[in-house]
Amino acid sequence: MERVYNFSAGPATLPVPVLKQVQEELLSYKGSGMSVMELSHRSALFQEIIDSAEKLLRELMDIPDHYKVLFLQGGASLQFSMVPLNLAHGKKIEFVNTGSWSKKAISEAKKLPNVLTSVIASSEDRNFSYIPDIPAPSKDAAYLHITANNTIEGTAIFNVPKTGDVPLVADMSSNILASQYDVNDFGLIYAGAQKNIGPAGLTIVIVREDLIGGSENLPSMLDYKIMADDGSMHNTPPTFSIYVAKLVFEWIKAQGGVSGMEALNRRKAGLLYSYIDESNLFSSPVVPAVRSLTNIPFTTGDAELDKAFIKEAFEKGFVNLKGHRSVGGMRASLYNAFPLEGVEELVAFMKDFAHSHEGGKVHV
Ligand SMILES: *Cc1c(COP(=O)(O)O)cnc(C)c1O
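A: This is the predicted complex of the input protein with pyridoxal-5'-phosphate.
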């Protein structure tokens, strides 16, 4: 079976050994005669899956016991509302605006009654091509929200701001488990699974225990406390996605955990960036010190040539290299499961392409 190099920003490429195991176990999970998709979420077999998924994630991210790990639905986008509903308590929320996803988080929070928002740092003045200096949040803020990795613009916050007693909340959708972070620096971390963890439909929330509860009359499905008390099974959880996530966690552990993944991601991103920087044709819009390891935008500076590149790349089996519609150009998403060889081959292809299109002209 031919597999392509899939540079999609999400849903994204998954480790082949995981897909194979899913295939092997698809019709009958552990001799049950049922697929995981057909198991009751109240069965012992599924309880074992969700318990070990949680245990593995705790191990991989070194999550302290006083944090809850929740397996929810609604995507990272639902967290744009769920975090303020649970954590704002009528206080002001402060934001760092570093891109399209930060802006969505801000605009969703603004829609809620009794929620005040304020942006304390932004890189919008230069197209989100850098990470701004982040001042200390106000003492009376409910929390400070950051986007740890800007999936569309290709920047990342590697140096997490120290926020003292004000909890730090991070949208880690596109770099959870790809870079090492200290969970102790955060009050809450959330991430949609479909980029670096598994299939769409699952959202991970890691939240400090003392921050949940105390929000009156929240709908049950939006209440972290209820979800935590019910072990993420207040209703039917996304069972199949949780199962695949568990297999991905096992795979990451076997690759040397998050530090192993980060080392590999640095090699992959380094290969691509160093070619982009030496190339006369391709360039990166992002300030070097804050370049994302997982989402790498680049361009020829000529929309027609970008189009030709994307088309030729596709024909050679490098798929989903088109940049987000809001920024154009190209974007290579190099999540954990994306293989090093894929980056080596992409760079070789880029060199060939540059050679035959130097100066934007086609040489025959
Ligand atoms: C993809 C993405 C989202 C949206 O995720 P959904 O799961 O589709 O809601 C939010 N934030 C970031 C940083 C993302 O990369």
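The pocket of pyridoxal-5'-phosphate is lined by residues 10, 75-77, 101, 147, 151, 171, 173-174, 192 (CB under 6 Å). Residues 88 and 142 are 5 Å apart (CA to CA).
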